[in-house]
Write a structure and sequence with these properties.
Elements (H helix, E strand, L loop, with lengths): L3 H15 L6 E3 L15 E7 L2 E6 L3 E6 L5 E5 L12 E7 L2 E6 L3 E6 L23 H8 L9 H6 L9 H10 L13 H21 L22 E5 L5 E5 L12
Helix pairs in contact: 1-5, 2-5, 4-5
Length: 260
């Protein structure tokens, strides 16, 4: 799933070609929204919010896409051949000189900008770790919410209502960097450790946003040696609303479930 840094780079890539230009054509195949309503409107902003990409127009409308696991945005010149089949396009926006296409996104929404503050997803997002100044105190407060006390820290870090922008790769990396077991309950970690995880997540995401690369010390390294201590990296399907693969070093990040 694209993480916050990927969305920041996507927004930056689309912005020069869309902002300030008038939409000449728009299409979202069923069951998509009636995006024809933005034809004739001028794009005023393209920005990332956590894992969401938002496109705003001067007629008061706003488009939101969430890419989940497989979605992506492409930008083409008019008449240029697309790199994916047209049947996979979920949203197409045409402006003078450019065609922006969102492929495979399961979430494409059109709504009034004034409704953003009460949007069922956007309004509940925690601090965006890629929008300085990050409210780290609020991020800590949300992690410390009593509802997360008995939650594994690996699951809590992925909860966009606590911190916006962290995905599975960043989760695995920051826990490994901080030598914290992904299976440790939030209540078992002191504020200093939680603040360290927040700081490390911000740094990893910023690096990804700036360079397109992020460190992957244990992610995808099942059965291979830990780059820090040489122990064999393990992998487990972590139980949560959306199951994710968790990678960790049993020596650097002792599993509290096994008393090791």
């Amino acid at each position: 799933m694209p993480e916050g840094d990927t969305l920041v780079r996507t927004a930056a890539g689309l912005r020069p070609y869309l902002v300030g230009r008038t939409v000449t054509a728009a299409k979202a195949p069923p069951p998509g929204p009636q995006v024809e309503r933005v034809v004739g409107a001028t794009v005023t902003a393209v920005e990332a919010m956590g894992k969401n990409l938002l496109i705003r127009f001067d007629n008061g409308l706003e488009l939101r896409t969430h890419l989940r696991m497989l979605g992506s945005w492409h930008r083409y010149r008019p008449g240029e051949r697309w790199r994916r089949p047209p049947a996979r396009a979920r949203l197409i926006l045409e402006v003078p000189g450019s065609v922006a296409v969102c492929f495979d996104a399961p979430v494409v929404e059109l709504f009034e900008q004034r409704a953003e503050a009460i949007h069922p997803s956007l309004s509940k997002l925690g601090p965006d770790l890629l929008k300085p100044p990050v409210d780290k105190d609020e991020a800590l407060r949300r992690l410390r919410d009593p509802s997360r006390a008995d939650t594994d820290i690996a699951v809590a870090l992925l909860d966009q209502r606590a911190l916006a922008g962290i995905g599975n790769e960043v989760k695995n990396e920051v826990l490994w960097q901080a030598k914290v077991s992904p299976f440790t309950k939030v209540a078992a970690l002191d504020d200093g450790v939680l603040r360290e995880l927040i700081d490390r997540a911000i740094e990893v995401l910023r690096q990804g946003a700036e360079t397109g690369r992020r460190p992957q010390s244990v992610y995808g390294r099942t059965g291979r040696p830990c780059p820090r201590c040489g122990a064999i990296v393990r992998m487990e399907h972590h139980r949560s609303e959306l199951p994710r693969l968790t990678y960790w070093c049993p020596r650097c990040q002792p599993d509290p479930r096994r008393g090791t």
